[in-house]
């Protein structure tokens, strides 16, 4: 079952999203280490009006166990949703958050529990996100590292097409759009 995240989901959701974000958790949190990053991202999850808020997270749950989390938001609201993150970065004397998306619904990250991978859960979450975007007459977008061939193939199989290259923190990404 897919549902909106709740505040009490904070620990599992942030750990799942951190799996997907890799080194981005340091950039997004403006933290100096992973432990500090997880703490800061948890704080953002518990607050409203930011990209990592529980308001923008959906979870996939089976038998009352969260197996995956999806961070999804309207790219048209990205500047507003990143305001708190950028204030945090400025306070910590770190670089501002880079805007990854356009005006589409944007999949920021999808994290699937390692023991639940290969069961189609990410696909279900992506299709759920696509249906939400479609309801609002928006396209759905995401970025994927250029050399992440497995993820790229999944996205292509789901109808995403390459739109353009984007570079973040020294890494080259494919910006892909569906719809």
Automatic annotation (TrEMBL):
N-acetyltransferase domain ranges (all copies): 12-179
Sections of the chain in a coiled coil: none
InterPro entries the UniProt entry points to: Acyl_CoA_acyltransferase, GNAT_dom, YpeA/RimI_acetyltransf
Name of the protein: GNAT family N-acetyltransferase
Keywords tagged on the record: Acyltransferase, Transferase
SUPFAM superfamilies, per the entry: Acyl-CoA N-acyltransferases (Nat)
CDD domains according to UniProt: NAT_SF (cd04301)
């Amino acid at each position: 079952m897919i549902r909106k995240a709740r505040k009490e989901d904070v620990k599992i959701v942030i750990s799942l999203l951190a799996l997907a974000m890799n080194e981005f958790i340091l950039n997004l949190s403006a933290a100096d280490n992973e432990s500090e990053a997880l703490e800061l991202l948890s704080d953002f999850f518990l607050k409203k009006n930011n990209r990592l808020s529980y308001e923008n997270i959906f979870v996939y749950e089976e038998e009352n166990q969260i197996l995956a989390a999806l961070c999804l938001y309207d790219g048209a609201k990205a500047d507003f949703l990143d305001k708190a993150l950028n204030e945090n970065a400025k306070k910590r004397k770190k670089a501002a958050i880079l805007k990854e998306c356009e005006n589409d619904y944007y999949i920021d990250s999808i994290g699937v529990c390692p023991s639940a991978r290969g069961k189609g859960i990410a696909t279900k979450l992506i299709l759920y996100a696509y249906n939400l975007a479609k309801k609002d007459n928006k396209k759905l977008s995401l970025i994927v590292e250029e050399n992440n061939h497995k993820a790229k193939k999944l996205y292509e199989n789901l109808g995403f097409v390459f739109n353009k290259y984007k570079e973040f923190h020294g890494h080259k990404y494919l910006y892909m759009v569906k719809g």
